[in-house]
Amino acid sequence: MATTSDIRNGLCIKYNNDIYKIVEFLHVKPGKGPAFVRTKLKSVTNGKVVDNTFPAGRKIDDVRVETHKFQYLYNEGETYHFMNEQDYSQIQLEKTALDSPDLMKEGEIVTIIINSEDDMPLSVDMPASVILEVTHTEPGVKGNTATNATKPATVESGATVNVPLFINEGDKIKVETTKGTYQERIKE
Fold first, then answer.
1. Residues 65-125, CATH architecture
2. Alpha-carbon dihedral angle through residues 129, 50, 37, 179, given to the nearest 10 degrees
3. Of residues 5, 14, 126, the one with CA closest to residue 65
4. C-alpha span between 41 and 22 (Å, rounded)
5. Through-space distance between the first and last CA atoms of the chain, rounded to whole angstroms
6. Domain range 2-62, its CATH number among 2.60.40.10, 3.30.565.10, 2.30.30.30, 3.40.630.30
7. Count of other CB atoms within 10 angstroms of residue 92
8. What is the pLDDT of residues 19-38, one digit of tens each?
9. pLDDT, tens digit, for every residue of 142-178?
10. Judging by beta carbons within 10 Å of its beta carbon (0-12, 13-18, 19+), is residue 150 exposed, middle or buried?
């Protein structure tokens, strides 16, 4: 048993007869009344995101988990295939278990959280940022710049990311996985 003071991003808890992963949280201490913790929970079974507020000090039922490094191999429709880096065993996960599947390229190393009680995979944690190559984008028009002007660009994984006008096809860019936003251009 844990309490609300143990809440952190990525913690898996049992709530409403389901297992949820904490995506966001905020400890709030109002000037009047008791403190509470505002959370955003993502179901690991169906991918639904719910908002919930826990009173401070409330007991929460945490799930014992193990983390393992897996390599993303490929996907077949909604099913994604991963290989364990230590014993080379393979597992398949549904698209709903992944936070940002459109930013994964083949060979990407991810961390998979596995329930230690029944060995079921719960969720996939991407690295904080990934480096992807731009496969298609319109050329930037000179003089078309206001402050922070951006244009859409398609990257090698198939995702669309808004990038600055100076990015061209073939450039490698760093993308933040939690928000899917452009961070910087990678010079080779």
1. Beta Barrel (2.40)
2. 20
3. 14
4. 5
5. 49
6. 2.30.30.30
7. 12
8. 888 888 999 888 888 899 99
9. 665 566 778 888 888 888 888 888 888 888 888 888 7
10. middle
